[in-house]
Design a protein that fits this description.
The structure holds 2 protein chains of 2 kinds. Chain A is mainly alpha-helical. Chain A has a single domain, classed as MetI-like fold (Orthogonal Bundle), CATH 1.10.3720. Chain A contains 12 helices and no strands. In chain A, helix 4 runs parallel beside helix 7, helix 7 crosses helix 9 and helix 9 packs antiparallel against helix 12. Chain B is mainly α. Chain B folds into 2 domains: 43 residues; 226 residues, MetI-like (MetI-like fold, Orthogonal Bundle), CATH 1.10.3720.10. Chain B contains 11 helices and no strands. In chain B, helix 3 packs across helix 9 and helix 5 packs across helix 6. Chain B starts with 9 loop residues before the first helix and ends in a 7-residue tail after the last helix. The relative contact order of chain B is 0.14. The chains are: A mainly alpha, B mainly alpha. The interface between A and B is large, with 87 and 90 residues.
Chain lengths: 330, 289
């Protein structure tokens, strides 16, 4: 038979001598290493539970005292021991939405500029500059806000807005400088890097075929961007904005320094406000009673719940996109 | 000349062209507006902070309220101490977790862990402060450097874990197969071959995480608390540059504002230095594995 003549077969049928094989050592180090790795990975899940649980424990007293109406009660009076979250929820959402209104158009436009327009040599320096912007700590933005941005806003932009758009209730009332609008602008600067970089990735994943087809039909550059690129990337850009919202909601230090820290609800964007994160930062160490501290914990719990929900929404949105995008390309 | 019925009316064509040019201009303006704040912040940091940087700033303790002078020596040392403690917690857990994700985990488990890491990444930093406050400050009856270090360390974990996983996955499968074929046990393959090959990438991830937490203020407010003096042991409250900058920036004294700018300049320089290290390290990362 052929097998007998095949040299390889002969080689393989020779039983290997035992001494060539590594001696079967103890499995212990391998198993220990694997379990150490698994334990570290599990820490992440434990941490999530820990964060939620600790905040719940901290806020139990407030939850049993005020119940669900805590969320829409707008009285925050530590002296009378009356606590309600609404002014802070309001402030958090308004400042974040303002930030999105500023940052999303700017971020998407910059991403468009970087993927579609900028000369190749210019792209990398701009990308690095945007990454550096992301590296500036919140407290430095806050300080810059107090000493540079706010005086400028107060003396120029706000005056101008009041003068030209003063008929809107949004731009009425006294101008202090520290305000909801100032907070929105500072947050916008801080979330621009993430919105820009995610948008850039989304735009880069738009197939060139899209653009070429539109150009071939005689579209101008703007028409190509609008019809072929932006409409294709719409869902992804929405996901990027939601991710930016997640960041904006939890922004603490810079906001605390420029928003004015007053628990009030005002139609005017020139009026001071307060956010969930900044009231915690300001009042936590001065909370003298247990109920006061517990209410602050409940604010933290609300903040955590909202940011986690928003982040999950963004993740799901971007992930489903990655799935459908790749199948589309294929 | 008769206009061709197949081409749009010239006036409309011109309008389309102008609109396109206008949008192009607007995009350029937006890009400039986005990077302008970086230069404005750095300009003011240097313009206002540089003149206040002197020998005293780096060697002296803060002066009591109302007295001119003094420095932030304790805050600088405090920041370095806190970063070291954070790294001691965040790096092992993060790297081991990354190893699990890249080398051991099933797809299902990995998806959950990655998801959890992304969620943790989105937890606002102030919330970390509150959690560690309940976890370490209340039981041990006092603000401490330990609590601050733990808060920052826990924030590092998901960051380091994800970057470690990303670089480990880049190590070619054939390296592992070759090593395993030589009869080397799994964990030794991972430590000696895989991690070793990706070491630069892992280091880069760690530095990125350090740069991210170096400027964090919110998680330290009710853990490390801050301190106007030297901390003699880690059970005491400790100062940190961001805390000191915050306290001085919202104070009412011009001299403190001056020092806050100087402190911010030092902090920014530290963070930029970390970022530049990352750039240098990752310049040839693609060639390494």
């Amino acid at each position: 038979m052929g097998e007998v003549n095949c040299p390889h077969m002969r080689l393989m049928s020779t039983p290997p001598s035992i001494s060539v094989l590594p001696r079967p050592g103890s499995q212990l180090p391998s198993t220990a290493f694997k379990w150490a790795a698994a334990l570290a990975a599990a820490t992440i899940v434990v941490l999530i539970v820990l964060v939620g649980w600790e905040l719940y424990v901290g806020s139990r007293q407030s939850i049993s005292m005020f119940g669900v109406p805590f969320l829409w009660s707008s009285k925050w009076d530590p002296v009378a021991e009356k606590y309600g979250a609404f002014p802070f929820i309001f402030g958090t959402f308004i400042s974040s939405l303002l930030a999105l209104a500023i940052a999303v158009p700017l971020g998407v436009a910059t991403a468009l500029f970087l993927t579609e327009l900028a000369p190749l040599k210019l792209r990398q320096p701009i990308i690095i500059a945007i990454e550096m912007l992301a590296a500036v700590p919140s407290v430095i933005f806050g300080m810059w806000g107090i000493f540079v941005l706010i005086p400028w806003l107060r003396d120029h932009l706000f005056v101008w807005l009041k003068h030209s758009l003063g008929f809107l209730p949004l731009f009425q009332g006294p101008v202090y400088g520290v305000s909801m609008l100032a907070a929105g602008i500072i947050i916008a600067i801080m979330i621009l890097p993430i919105i820009t970089s995610i948008s850039r990735e989304i735009l880069r994943s738009v197939p060139d075929l899209q653009r070429e087809a539109a150009y071939a039909l005689g579209a101008t550059r703007w028409e190509v961007l609008r019809i072929a690129v932006l409409s294709y990337a719409r869902r992804g850009l929405f996901g990027a904005s939601i991710l930016g919202l997640g960041r904006a909601l939890g922004e603490t230090m810079a906001v605390t320094m420029v928003i004015g820290n007053r628990p009030q609800i005002s139609a005017s964007l020139f009026a001071p406000g307060y956010t969930l994160a900044s009231v915690i930062a300001n009042e936590f160490t001065e909370a003298t009673t247990d109920l006061y501290r517990s209410s602050l914990f409940e604010l933290g719990l609300v903040l955590l719940a909202v940011t986690i929900l928003v982040n999950i929404a963004a993740q799901v949105m971007l992930k489903s996109l990655a799935g459908s995008g790749s199948s589309k390309v294929a | 000349m008769v206009a061709s019925p197949y081409l749009p009316a010239p006036r409309y064509a011109r309008w389309r062209k102008w609109k396109s040019i206008a949008v192009t201009g607007a995009l350029v303006a937006c890009a400039l507006a986005v990077i302008a704040p970086l230069f404005l912040v750095i300009f003011f940091l240097v313009a206002r902070g540089y003149s206040s940087l002197d020998w005293n700033f780096f060697t002296q303790l803060p002066k009591p309220t109302g007295e001119i002078g003094g420095g932030m020596a304790n805050a600088i040392v405090g920041t370095v101490t806190l970063l070291a403690m954070a790294a001691a917690i965040g790096v092992p857990i993060g790297v081991f977790g990354g190893i699990y994700l890249a080398e051991y985990g099933s797809d299902r488990a990995n998806n959950w862990i990655r998801f959890a890491a992304d969620v943790l990444n989105g937890v606002p930093s102030i919330v970390w402060g509150m959690v560690v406050y309940l976890f370490l400050v209340v039981p041990f009856k006092g603000f401490s450097a330990y609590a601050g270090g733990v808060a920052l360390g826990l924030m590092m974990v998901p960051l380091v874990m994800r970057t470690t996983e990303e670089v480990l996955v880049l190590v070619p499968q054939s390296y592992r197969e070759a090593a395993l074929a030589l009869g080397i046990t799994r964990w030794k393959v991972i430590v000696v071959i895989v991690v070793r090959t990706a070491l630069k990438g892992i280091a880069t991830g760690v530095i990125v995480a350090l740069a991210r937490i170096a400027g964090e203020t919110a998680p330290l407010l009710f853990t490390a608390l801050g301190n106007s003096f030297w901390s003699h042991n880690l059970k005491e409250p400790i100062s940190a540059l961001p805390l000191q900058i915050f306290a001085y920036a919202i104070s009412a004294y011009d001299d403190w504002h001056r020092q806050a700018w100087a402190g911010a300049l030092v902090l920014m320089a530290l963070i930029l230095a970390l970022n530049i290290t990352v750039r240098v390290l990752s310049r040839d990362r693609k060639i390494a594995p």
